[in-house]
Design goal:
Elements (H helix, E strand, L loop, with lengths): L1 H120 L4 H15 L1
Helix pairs in contact: 1-2
């Protein structure tokens, strides 16, 4: 009877030890599975974050390219505007020069007529000729 009790007692101790070992194994397996699940979740989340970052970078790149294109367009518009303004200035200056030349020719014709009239009347034309030379010098400057 004592031996039976001892054996039962040892069996109970062995069962208790085995149950404790089984519980610890099960807990370790659960922890391991939980860690694996967490790692999988973090891996997927990192992929999502990487994709979002890539999309943001693409959008930033597109915006930068668009801004650069707009800048180039504005530079070209300004260049064309300056060229048109310069062309306009040159054409205005050319027109003004032609008008001045026409006025000068008209004045010279008038001056020559006046000098001839003075000469036919017998008046001294030397002061008129000197004044005409001075006028030509001033116009040339």
């Amino acid at each position: 009877d004592k031996l039976d009790m001892m054996r039962r007692w040892e069996d109970d101790i062995q069962k208790s030890r085995q149950a404790q070992i089984d519980r610890k194994k099960a807990q370790r397996a659960r922890d391991k599975a939980e860690d694996a699940e967490t790692a999988k979740f973090l891996g997927e989340w990192c992929k999502v974050l990487d994709k979002q970052e890539s999309e943001e970078n693409n959008l930033k790149d597109q915006a930068a390219r668009k801004l650069a294109q707009e800048h180039l367009k504005m530079v070209e518009i300004q260049r064309q505007k300056k060229m048109a303004e310069r062309h306009s200035d040159l054409s205005v200056a050319g027109h003004a020069k032609k008008v001045m030349e026409a006025d000068t020719l008209e004045f010279h014709a008038y001056a020559e007529k006046c000098i001839r009239d003075y000469s036919t009347e017998g008046k001294n034309v030397i002061p008129l000729i000197k004044e005409l030379r001075d006028f030509r010098k001033r116009v040339a400057e």
